[in-house]
């Protein structure tokens, strides 16, 4: 719980934190991945503090990460993007219309107006296809630098392995 943060932070601050790292990621790498609580991006890919940016959102959707990617590339020098989606993702389990129905159930007028503004929750039906689409989206996006190396991956929650698919 959030109330344990201060207590739990003591050891980290004393033994693990690296206060003098430069702001730009040393590997010039940005990872887009899902917010899923079962994924430990740094440990699973052998990455350390200071080496990369990690943008997390529901699904690891590239479209949702554009604001972060622009800042990362133009102001902090990253030149490679790796997109990760994963098996057992919640984004495979619903449709935008279903979630909108849930939101509208107990919504007041202000909430209903917000629901109407949402185009899509960016859910997907096919895991591998969704990674390929995100890679294509980034390669063709006018604000993503042309020289960017973009790759697409699946993280398998069952066994912790990663598989490149794009
Ligand atoms: Zn997920």
UniProtKB/TrEMBL annotation:
Cofactor(s) it depends on: Zn(2+)
Enzyme Commission code(s) on record: 4.2.1.1
Role according to the record: Reversible hydration of carbon dioxide.
Keyword field: Lyase, Metal-binding, Zinc
Broad EC category: lyase
Catalytically driven reaction(s): hydrogencarbonate + H(+) = CO2 + H2O
Annotated residues for binding of Zn(2+): 34, 36, 86, 89
InterPro entries: Carbonic_anhydrase, Carbonic_anhydrase_sf
Cofactor note (record): Binds 1 zinc ion per subunit.
Species this chain originates from: Marasmius oreades (fairy-ring Marasmius)
TM region positions: none
Molecular-function GO terms, alphabetical: carbonate dehydratase activity; zinc ion binding
Name of the molecule in the record: Carbonic anhydrase
SUPFAM superfamilies cross-referenced by the UniProt entry: beta-carbonic anhydrase, cab
Zinc recorded as keyword: yes
Entry keyword Ion transport: no
Pfam short name (any one): Pro_CA
Family the entry assigns: Belongs to the beta-class carbonic anhydrase family.
């Amino acid at each position: 719980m959030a109330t344990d943060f201060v207590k739990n932070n003591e050891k980290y601050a004393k033994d693990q934190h690296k206060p003098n790292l430069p702001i730009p990621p040393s590997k010039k790498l940005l990872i887009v991945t899902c917010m899923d609580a079962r994924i430990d991006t740094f440990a699973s890919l052998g990455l350390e503090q200071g080496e990369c940016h990690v943008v997390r959102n529901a699904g690891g959707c590239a479209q949702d990460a554009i604001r972060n990617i622009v800042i990362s590339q133009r102001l902090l020098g990253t030149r490679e993007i790796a997109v990760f989606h994963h098996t057992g993702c919640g984004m495979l389990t619903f449709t935008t219309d279903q979630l909108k129905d849930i939101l509208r159930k107990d919504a007041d007028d202000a909430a209903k107006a917000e629901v109407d503004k949402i185009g899509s929750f960016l859910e997907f039906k096919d895991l591998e296809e969704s990674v390929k689409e995100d890679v294509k989206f980034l390669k063709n996006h006018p604000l993503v630098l042309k020289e960017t190396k973009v790759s697409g991956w699946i993280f398998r929650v069952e066994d912790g392995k990663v598989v490149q698919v794009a």
